[in-house]
Amino acid sequence: MSINGGRCGERFQIGFSNTLVSKDNPDRELSRRFIGPRFAVVTSAEPRPLSTIARCRAAAFTLTEVLVSVLLFSIAVAALCLTISFNLATTRSAQENLRASQILVEKMEYMRLYTWAQITNGTSIPKTFTEAFNPSSPNSDFVFNGQISIGPVWFNNNCSTNLRMVTVSVDWKSKRSESRRMQTFVSRNGLQQYVY
């Protein structure tokens, strides 16, 4: 005959003597005493096992554990959101810098098409320009403002009268003010002589 009870569903078996022996732990003997013809009370030298309700309460999460779990989950979600936001901002900055570089190279390529007289007279080349971020929609709000300056070279030697320094700069306003610039030399008998 076996009796259910004890810790974590441990079963006890009644032996031929006045003691109960645990099925899960045979070395543990439990004493019993009879209350009536069919009922026995099992006692032990160890603390009494928890009741089913007490065991369920002990197995449940406490409020502190739940709050700590929610806090850790919130920190993880916040870190994920910050990472995504940082990646989007970095991608946007890279797009803006790439477009600014494209504009600078485009304006420098135009310098090859001008003659020496157009470069030096100061009226043939526009001093300022505006380019859209998206070339396919030139009426967009996000624009690049540029300047072209042509001046003498800073060094003094035989060819300084036949050289000009061209500086193209681009400014734009994103989250903060950004600017890029590119410089090159143009000579009197340079590459523009080969354009037909």
What would a concise description of this structure say?
The chain has 196 residues and is of the alpha+beta class.
Report on the structure:
By secondary structure, the protein is of the alpha+beta class. It has a domain at 100-194. It has 3 helices and 9 strands; from the N terminus they run E-E-E-E-E-H-H-H-E-E-E-E. The protein has helices spanning 52-59, 63-111, 116-121, and strands spanning 2-4, 11-14, 19-22, 29-34, 40-43, 128-132, 143-151, 163-173, 177-187. The strands form 2 sheets. A 5-stranded antiparallel beta sheet has the order 1-2-3-4-5, with no helix packed on it. A 4-stranded antiparallel beta sheet has the order 6-7-8-9. The chain is rod-shaped. The model is unreliable at 6-18 (pLDDT under 50).
SSE map:
Layout: E1 2-4, E2 11-14, E3 19-22, E4 29-34, E5 40-43, H1 52-59, H2 63-111, H3 116-121, E6 128-132, E7 143-151, E8 163-173, E9 177-187
Antiparallel strand pairs: 1-2, 2-3, 3-4, 4-5, 6-7, 7-8, 8-9
Identify the overall geometry: rod-shaped
Distance between the termini: 113 Å
Determine the structural class based on helices, strands and strand pairing.
Answer: alpha+beta
Strand content: 25-35%
Order of helices and strands: EEEEEHHHEEEE
Rounded radius of gyration (Å): 44 Å
Q: Biggest sheet, open or closed, and with what strands and sense?
A: 5 strands, antiparallel
Strand order of the largest sheet: 1-2-3-4-5
Provide the descriptors you would attach to this structure in a database record.
about 200 residues; alpha+beta; 4-stranded antiparallel sheet; 9 strands; rod-shaped
